[in-house]
Amino acid sequence: MRIALFTDIYLDIPGGIPSSIKAQKSALQKLGHKITIFCPGDQINNTEKDLYIVPTHRLLRPNQAPLAKRPKRILQSIKKEYSVFSDYFDLVHVHYEASCSIAGVKLAKEYKLKLIQTMHGREDIAINTNLSAPTKYLVARLLNIMHSISLGRLSSKTERLPRKDRFLIKNSVCQNMWQLMVRQANLADAVISPSAHFAKNLKQYGVKKPIHVISNGVDDSYLQNLGFSVRSFKPNEHLRIIWNSRLSKEKRILPFLQSVASSKHKDRIDLTIIGDGNQMQEAKNFAKSHLQSSQIKFLGIVPHEQIFNFMQNQHISVINSYGFDTQGMTILEAVACGLPVLYADPAMDEVVPEHGGLRSSNDSVAAMTDAIDQLFAHPTIIEEMSKNVIKAKGSVLQSTQISKLLELYLK
């Protein structure tokens, strides 16, 4: 098949969406399919093959991410290269909801190509958490209006959009972002959710198109030359914890560091922090004031294929987000390495293998501190969890998940 993947988040951005797209691309190409990724970015620094850089703003880079120009400009550019889009592609798979992704939707509709939409994340939480009032109310409203206008007559074909409630849509920020997400999903022929709990939420808030739960996957090639054994934590050791996520408010890096600093055993905890984000400096400042410099290493952005090297000698991986992640690539990557998971969100029970992780009792700093201290009180838990995680290792590899994706493509 000839597949066009559209996404607004790919180049220069570490995280779950880019890594899942790369893994899908690699697995599909190994099976002989032709993949082209359409995304914003810097053409000069691009070394990846089978990539089409859409018109991108030079100076506007929210959170250091490349920002695509208006869908109209993107469509004009693509049509110069692919005059009749359907002569080059059999299917369009869209991974986001902003300008580049909107262009993908419009091309699929114009040329009557099958359209698959993956709904990756809770954009309502991202806006609500990272922007202050009143800015977040204005931004969410503008994004929703621009999304509707950009889709033009197509947007009128979506079902009734969700209103505020007492569950997930508690304010107008959430309402606007959920309306945007539902509008985007209902234009597809089929929708992919990486988890069952997010699929349930999408359906509850008005997504009428068929929703298929297909997990993201870890690129097999990243692990082929690495060996991972069952982890064990000896009573005289320092506990080695790895953080492999953005350093941002929605990922809750500061509450996690506060939990470590509050632990009775904080002098026996070694942290490796991989990632960057809008709270990097705050995290460093907190660590400098409350933790010893020998305890914590901030590595910044690490090439994705190298992250697994750092996981080889860790005891446990941590993901501290709550209500934000629809799945959590951090969890899948830990499982692929036989690494237990320390986490806070009950929704992640679906993703963490049974008895393969330790969840705090709630989302408070104190609860996470208690969970950390449990590992010191019962060090054999690490080995027990690691054994269970290793049993599930194969399930998180992209080679396992790709057959489900292909089956949906060919339906």
Automatic annotation (TrEMBL):
**Which keywords does the record carry?**
Glycosyltransferase, Transferase
The EC number(s) this enzyme carries: 2.4.1.337
The protein's enzyme class: transferase
Where do the Glycosyltransferase subfamily 4-like N-terminal domain residues begin and end? 15-221
Annotated GO MF terms: 1,2-diacylglycerol 3-glucosyltransferase activity
Q: Specify the Glycosyl transferase family domain's residue ranges.
A: 234-389
Q: Which InterPro entries match?
A: Glyco_trans_1, Glyco_trans_4-like_N, Glycosyltransferase_grp1
| One Pfam family this sequence matches | Glyco_transf_4
This protein's record includes keyword Transferase: yes
Q: Which domain of life is it from?
A: Bacteria
- The name this protein carries in UniProt is Alpha-monoglucosyldiacylglycerol synthase
Which species? Answer: Candidatus Nanosyncoccus nanoralicus
